[in-house]
Amino acid sequence: MAFSSSDRTPAKPSSKAAGRAPKVAYQCSDCGWETGKWVGRCGECQAWGTVVERSAPRSRVQAGPVTAPARPIGEVPIEDSQARSSGVPELDRVLGGGLVPGAAILLAGEPGVGKSTLLLEVAAQTARLRHRVLYVTGEESAAQVRMRADRTGGIFPELYLAAETDLGAVLGHVEEVKPTLLVIDSVQTISAGDVDGVPGGVTQVKEVSAALIRMAKLRNITLVIIGHVTKDGSIAGPRVLEHLVDVVLQFEGERTSRLRMVRAVKNRYGPVDEVGCFDLSATGIVAITDPTGLFLDARHGPVPGTCVAVSMEGRRPLLSEVQALVTHSPNERPRRTCSGVDHARVALILAVLQQHAGIRLHAHDVFVSSVGGARLTEPSNDAAIALAIVSAYLGRPLGRDIVAIGELGLSGELRRVRDLGARLAEAGRMGFRQAFMPAETPRSAGQSKVLDGLRVVEVDHVRRALDLLGLQREDPSSRGDTGRPFTLH
């Protein structure tokens, strides 16, 4: 029996002909993490109830006109991308030379650490060098920023100020002012009217940042964006923000200290191991070109439980004083309290001293702290921490002109660290005359040499260092002898 073509059931259209349905994904509204199915807890930031549905239709992009023809890399001009000074030498040091035209810089830090004060100083110093600057504030009024600029001496004709929270208005100010440096304070306060989401949300931050960066690249403007941080210290907003920018700077500092440090976490134009130091006060922020003296106590006489360490902050050696206090504990579990030093490293040092140097501290409370708000996280500070603890335990001071450098191994050996030459040179410049350092070879252990007026003693084991300093393993009842300071024999 034959059938006509009209009796046949119509065939279903193929997926290619009908087009694929939009792919539905889920995204965290806090950090931008994406997943193919809904979950109650974000897999990136571990926040509950922040994963929402997002429709992401696919689009086919065809070839279009190019903005500029491709050329051999050797023919690309670089004159317009030369870094220029920001007027703040410590910031130029971290950036690798200065502000690069067309670069996007993200400055992140905790609330109240001084981000706005630092960038207002950068804007003022750049304007002082006759470069036009536009400072856009979304958190304060223009009058409030003007008052802070009056207090810090940052009033210059080339510094323009605008208080805006709309992205379109910000781009309009850029068209009118035509700056060479644009500062946005902060990106979480700027919103785009045609983008869904609240200001500071993932979608808004992503779109606003992308628009500002496109504008900066197109007009060869240096863009500096202030970003907030979360409770755990990471940069707030989507992780894609850190990938969009060229430089990510971390602004750090303790609320109880005037010292502030700028670290480069990402830098496409320079090193990422440099640190800039600043002094934040009521009159503004000032760069500190020689911060070593901030971490050394100004007292004159030696006291038990102190030793000087030489750590590296980026490429810069810094001398920091370590203080220790050891007291007999009335508790079954003695206390171990640390400030400015790594608690895990101190626990390791205490175990090594007890096992390999005969210093019994299992019944004593131990307190270890750094001076001046310095953070000593390098393993090269182990030797100084160990000597400070033993000095406090025996109640006898070390000499004021002694520094100790070296990492402490689990078997009590002192291991070499990087940049020993720079560390010793900085110690000699600061007036220290004796230094302990790890031995280069087993044969050189215990030998001493003089380098630029600094007597250097090579030590292979912590017990050898204690013997050279005259730190005898005494009975605890004999502690309290605060006679002559220890000196090298």
UniProtKB/TrEMBL annotation:
Q: Which residues form the RecA family profile domain?
A: 80-229
Q: Which GO terms describe its cellular component?
A: cytosol
Instruction: Write out the residues that bind ATP.
Output: G109, E110, P111, G112, V113, G114, K115, S116
Q: According to the UniProt entry, where does the motif RadA KNRFG motif sit in this chain?
A: 266-270
Decide whether keyword DNA damage is in the record.
yes
PROSITE patterns, alphabetized: RECA_2 (PS50162)
Q: Name one GO molecular function term.
A: zinc ion binding
The UniProt keyword set, sorted, is:
ATP-binding, DNA damage, DNA repair, DNA-binding, Hydrolase, Metal-binding, Nucleotide-binding, Stress response, Zinc, Zinc-finger
The answer to whether the entry has keyword Hydrolase is yes
Annotated spans, Lon-protease-like: 365-489
GO biological process, alphabetically ordered: recombinational repair
InterPro entries noted in UniProt: AAA+_ATPase, DNA_repair_RadA, P-loop_NTPase, RecA_ATP-bd, Ribosomal_Su5_D2-typ_SF, Ribsml_uS5_D2-typ_fold_subgr, Rubredoxin_2
> Source organism's superkingdom?
Bacteria
Q: Which HAMAP family match?
A: RadA_bact
Q: What is known of its domains?
A: The middle region has homology to RecA with ATPase motifs including the RadA KNRFG motif, while the C-terminus is homologous to Lon protease.
The UniProt similarity line reads:
Belongs to the RecA family. RadA subfamily.
What this protein is reported to do is described as: Plays a role in repairing double-strand DNA breaks, probably involving stabilizing or processing branched DNA or blocked replication forks. DNA-dependent ATPase involved in processing of recombination intermediates, plays a role in repairing DNA breaks. Stimulates the branch migration of RecA-mediated strand transfer reactions, allowing the 3' invading strand to extend heteroduplex DNA faster. Binds ssDNA in the presence of ADP but not other nucleotides, has ATPase activity that is stimulated by ssDNA and various branched DNA structures, but inhibited by SSB. Does not have RecA's homology-searching function.
Q: What is this protein called?
A: DNA repair protein RadA
